[in-house]
Specification:
Elements lengths: L4 H6 L3 H7 L21 E3 L21 E2 L5 H4 L5 H17 L4 E3 L22 H16 L4 E7 L12 E3 L2 H8 L1 H10 L3 E4 L3 E2 L2 E2 L4 H11 L5 E4 L7 H7 L11 H11 L5 H19 L9 H15 L1 E5 L11 E5 L17 E2 L14 E5 L11 H13 L2 E7 L18 H13 L3 E6 L14 E4 L7 H9 L13 E2 L16 E3 L8 H7 L3 E3 L10 E8 L10 E9 L5 E11 L10 E10 L4 E8 L1 H4 L1 E3 L4 E3 L3 E10 L2 E10 L15 H6 L4 H15 L8 H6 L2 H9 L14 H14 L1
Parallel strand pairs: 1-3, 2-12, 3-4, 4-6, 5-7, 5-18, 6-9, 11-13, 11-14, 14-15, 15-16
Antiparallel strand pairs: 7-8, 10-16, 17-19, 20-21, 21-24, 22-23, 22-27, 25-26, 27-28
Length: 756
């Protein structure tokens, strides 16, 4: 239906317009019945529908409707599967339509800067490319059902400590390369209906009133068309926020901020057209939903099976020594740990789903499986019970194999606070050690929203990273353990050996200002560049079969920055069972144009192969695949020179590589001044010849005006030394080492600047 929104807005009173810019309550936007503006509802939903009707609250202290809890982002991102995530989005979108929810609050794409962030279970990855691709797929799925999404939390929201007030201190390049791209990709590939700004400040300005963030970057640079809402309670100054591009305040402020908006319009400090623009953006999204209402039925049982499928596609097999997995039904197996019976499958806080059904691993094993159970330790607290431990050890002794279900209790990680360490509960590590003394054939299944240290890593034979598996995660675990499903997930984050290895270790957490001193070196970008030992690298994951890579083909090995090139590779299943492989494409910058990570993910595809089957996987690279953000150009810059194309099964398992040579027409502007060096001038094409003349005079002065030097002098001043000194010699030094006056040097600077 075509609607004249400007006409509708012209008929609204100032009070009605101001009121449209804040929530009616925790979950509803206001209506204007006389103008046909309906009341609509938004709801939490990164991994399922958390709809509250009566007495709604942000953190879910009151019950929500029964719904399906899909695997949270920490797990689903490990699928590396765009189609799967789009399907998950479609399913949640249908549930939202059926429950009259206009906008689902998600996905959450904040970067996993540190394993300690209490909300990491809601976030996809440490890698912005992966997070953006997965998010765009999910958004397209939800919005195919004419239900909106609200991608969050924009931006640099990477900790829970003082989340409503702290300032994330990061340079523009770091923000543009690490903390913004997932949001940018979502806009350009999926155009989410809404954006949710974060609580925190960015370099001293609240995200809710940051014009550079909400207007200059989001709308002007990326082309976002929807409305921006606040995180719940994130508004600092409502009028400043409106001017900056914050359209909707959630929840409402009982009219307080609406009055401030009206007063600002009346006294002329806020232009009414700014308010009108915000209202138009909000109405546009309201009607996008209202005009496409398609009430429909859905079957929660069917969606439960979809949740199981997503979990199965995402869980990561980390270790499988001696092919201890898959288990056989004929083997006597002891399941140990409270999580086997009571799995932890979602995180705490605003995204907590009221599940209609929960499956556990113990009840999901094949009917003919010989499984015994011993609790060993509880799932909800760190408590070592001697009786429970002794029972578990005895069960382990009597079994052929043991599966220990370990993980983090709810109290260890949640929205609202960060973890203080990366350890499992001590009771779990202690019991794992005791069981290993009597049973070497031990597998550990992990239930956690973020990485944990594994002191027993070299002693257990199998490790399955199940993360938080959603309500059907228990069945997914059982199916993988018994080989009904071949695991195919890959780590969306690096698992470090210990917390202190993390690049943000010294700059995470406390204080009013959080300094992002590691810059662009986040996750594998840091670990791989440092060549640091890790427990498991980014992109890693095992299968019950094996794959080989061959026949790397590049469509153009001498592209310009305007070209898009195709990368293809053949993948063969060399094992005896069908499986899926995630082919990963990385790019290494060899131009030395900037300090950059060892490699960066720029493509991935998941491919299914029967035993012996070969398929060709094709991925594309464009300018952005090679570029870094240059703050002088205010643009992405791909330098001319060599780049290595790397294809592999993880960031540290590169199977094939080839070098290309890129030609770029982009030129970084040169600003010549007294401290510009001869080396910089020699490397800049437009100043190279003049720099050669100056260098010649400088070298002559270094030799005392003589073309020859004594043997003793030659030993004292090597060629290498002269070259290094020349490279770093500032123009001002030509007064001492060239015979130039200050005025003459300034003339040279003016001449050189004119060439630039």
């Amino acid at each position: 239906m075509n609607r004249d929104l400007k006409k509708i807005i012209s008929q609204m009173t100032l009070e009605e317009k101001a009121g449209m810019c804040s929530g009616l309550d925790f979950w509803h936007l206001k209506s204007v019945e006389r103008l046909g503006i309906p009341e609509v509802m938004v709801s939490d939903g990164p991994h399922g529908l958390r709809k509250q009707d009566d007495k709604g609250d942000h953190l879910g202290m009151n019950d929500s409707i029964k719904a399906v809890c899909f695997p949270p982002a920490a797990l689903s991102a490990c699928s590396f599967d765009r189609e799967l995530m789009e399907s998950m989005g479609e399913t949640i979108g249908r549930e939202a339509q059926a429950n009259d929810v206009s906008v689902v609050l998600g996905p959450a794409v904040n970067i996993k800067r540190s394993p300690l962030c209490g909300r990491n279970f809601e976030y996809y990855s440490e890698d912005p490319y992966l997070a953006g691709e997965i998010a765009a797929a999910f958004i397209n799925g939800v919005q195919s059902q004419h239900v909106g999404t609200s991608i969050k939390h924009f931006a640099a929201n990477n900790q829970e400590y003082h989340r409503m007030s702290n300032s994330s201190e990061a340079d523009e390049r770091t923000l543009r390369e690490i903390y913004f791209p997932a949001f940018e990709t979502a806009v350009k590939k999926a155009q989410p209906y809404t954006f949710m700004c974060s609580y925190n400040q960015i370099n001293g300005t609240f995200a809710s009133e940051n014009k550079w963030l909400l207007t200059d970057v989001l709308r002007n640079d990326w082309g976002f068309e929807g409305y921006v809402m606040s995180d719940w309670g994130a508004v600092n100054d409502r009028v400043k926020g409106l001017e900056a591009g914050l359209d909707l305040e959630m929840p409402g402020s009982n009219g307080t901020n609406d009055a401030l908006i009206m007063e600002a319009v009346k006294n002329g400090t806020l232009k009414e057209e700014v308010l009108d623009q915000a209202v138009e953006r909000i109405l546009n999204i309201i009607y996008k939903y209202a005009d496409h209402r398609t009430p429909q039925e859905f079957t929660m049982e069917k969606d439960h099976e979809e949740a199981r499928r997503i979990a199965e596609e995402s869980m990561v097999l980390l270790q499988n020594t001696d092919q201890i997995l898959p288990l056989k039904a004929s083997e006597k197996v002891a399941f140990i740990g409270g999580f086997a019976k009571k799995p932890r499958f979602q995180g705490g806080g605003s995204s907590h789903i009221n599940c209609f059904k929960i499956t556990n691993a113990l009840e999901s094993v094949p009917a003919d499986a010989k499984v015994t159970y011993a609790e060993g330790f509880p799932a909800d607290k760190d408590l070592y019970d001697k009786r429970l431990a002794a029972e578990a050890v005895q069960a382990a002794k009597a079994a052929d194999k043991v599966v220990i279900f370990a993980g983090l209790p709810d109290s260890f990680e949640s929205e609202g606070y960060d973890r203080s360490h990366m350890r499992l509960p001590e009771c779990q590590n202690r019991l794992i050690g005791e069981i290993l003394e009597v049973q070497p054939n031990t597998v550990v299944v992990l239930h956690n929203g973020s990485p944990v240290e594994m002191p027993w890593i070299n002693d257990v034979k199998g490790i399955l990273e199940a993360y938080l598996g959603g309500q059907a995660g228990g069945a997914a675990v059982a199916n993988i353990l018994y080989g009904i499903v071949n695991p195919s997930g890959k780590l969306a984050e690096t698992i470090p050996v210990k917390l202190a290895d993390n690049p943000s270790y010294l700059n995470f957490g406390g204080g009013d200002k959080v300094e992002y001193r590691e810059g662009v070196f986040v996750g594998y970008r840091y670990y791989d560049t440092k060549q640091m030992e890790v427990a498991y690298p980014f992109g890693y994951g095992l299968s019950y079969t094996t794959f080989t890579y061959s026949n790397l083909q590049i469509s153009n090995t001498t592209p310009t920055e305007k070209d898009t090139i195709s990368i293809s590779v053949d993948v063969t299943n060399t094992g005896s069972v069908a499986g899926k492989e995630v082919v990963q494409l990385y790019v290494k910058d060899m131009t030395s144009s900037a300090i950059r990570p060892e490699k960066e993910l720029k493509g991935f595809e998941k491919v299914q192969l029967t035993s012996g089957e070969t398929k060709t996987v094709t991925m594309k690279l464009d300018k952005r695949s090679f570029a870094w953000y240059n703050t002088e150009l205010h643009d992405w810059y791909a330098a001319s020179g060599k780049y290595e194309i790397l294809v592999g099964a993880s960031s540290r398992d590169i199977r094939l590589s080839e070098t290309i040579k890129l030609s770029s027409s982009q030129v970084i502007p040169m600003h010549v001044h007294m401290n510009t060096t001869l080396g910089e001038l020699l490397r800049y094409p437009k100043t190279k010849e003049t720099a050669k003349e100056l260098t010649s005079k400088y070298l002559s002065a270094m030799n005392g005006g003589s073309e020859t030097a004594s043997e003793s002098a030659a030993e004292a001043i090597s060629e290498e030394m002269v070259e290094a000194m020349t490279d770093s010699m500032p123009l001002r030094s030509l007064c001492s080492f060239g015979g130039f006056s200050r005025a003459e040097i300034q003339e040279i600077i003016d001449k050189l600047q004119a060439l630039c």
